[in-house]
Amino acid sequence: MNTVIVEKGEIGVIKLNRPDKLNAINMEMVYDMVNAFNELKASKAVIITGNGKAFSAGADVKEMMEMSIEQVTREGHMPLWDTMRGFRKPIIAALNGVTAGGGLELAMACDMIIAAESARLGQPEINLGIIPGAGGTQRLTRTVGKYRSMEIVLTGKLITAWEAYRMGLVTKVVPDEALMQESMRLAREISQRSGFAVEMGKEAVNKALDTLLQQGLDFERRNFYVTLLSEDGKEGMRAFIEKRKPNWKT
Ligand code: CO8
Fold this sequence. Notes:
The protein has 250 residues and is of the alpha/beta class. It has 2 domains: 4-191, 2-enoyl-CoA Hydratase, Chain A, domain 1; 195-241, Lyase 2-enoyl-coa Hydratase, Chain  A, domain 2 (Orthogonal Bundle). It contains 12 helices and 10 strands. It has helices at residues 27-39, 61-66, 69-75, 78-86, 102-108, 138-144, 146-155, 161-166, 179-191, 195-210, 213-229, 231-241; strands at residues 4-7, 11-16, 45-50, 54-56, 91-95, 98-100, 112-116, 120-122, 159-160, 172-174. The strands form 2 sheets. The protein has a 6-stranded mixed beta sheet with strand order 1-2-3-5-7-10, with helices on both faces. A 4-stranded mixed beta sheet has the order 4-6-8-9. The mean pLDDT is 97. Belongs to the enoyl-CoA hydratase/isomerase family. Pfam families: ECH_1. Its EC number is 4.2.1.17.
């Protein structure tokens, strides 16, 4: 793969690797990321980060400009979003620098976002005379609310990692040098839980963004019953009662 570096293991790592272009996402990178996620299906969690001084400055403007409307519609970035949507394990975005446009949309498609203190986040598409196209108006608004989202989308200005934290847009802000260590620590902490329960929990939390409250509550209850009857569920409760560490099967 030319545009991403993949590290396999219990915690998989995908590093966007077009540092001289601030990891702008071109079609090659879209397919490399799809392949990378497919290669990491056996990992317990995946961290996605950027090589160099950016997480990603968004879609590759040069390439995007040259694509016809038919090409964008037929061959666009959907394979990436579809793959991420279907990925059952938690994905942590580790933002190491500029995270803009499609780069922020990529981060928001992940399950947790850890930002280095120097990271800058935003949806600058408006400065190109376009608007976000992969969640930058929808996921962002559901996360930070209408009024802050409007300012970000309509001014295109980048905000600091701490501003993003105060809006609830990132899970945690860490010193630059601790970014990968902290992301790894979080991934490892999650990897020690029941794999099946983690998948069920991820699925249920994500449903909250897709549904009205009652549908979400019904979905959560379904997943709760499933975990309650699962082998790991029985083992976890038995271990608690027997005052010992659980021995997870998944
Ligand atoms: N596309 C292509 N090349 C880029 C991009 C980009 N998005 N961003 C930076 N680069 C290139 C620059 O052209 C430059 O290349 P070169 O050295 O060959 O001229 C190199 O990366 C370094 O960039 P800068 O010199 O500009 O670096 P600065 O540190 O001075 O500035 C900025 C950093 C402010 C981030 C600046 O690079 C910038 O404004 N970039 C564009 C950001 C942007 O507008 N992003 C939105 C793009 S549109 C989009 O993402 C729509 C998403 C639709 C959904 C699909 C998602 C996958």
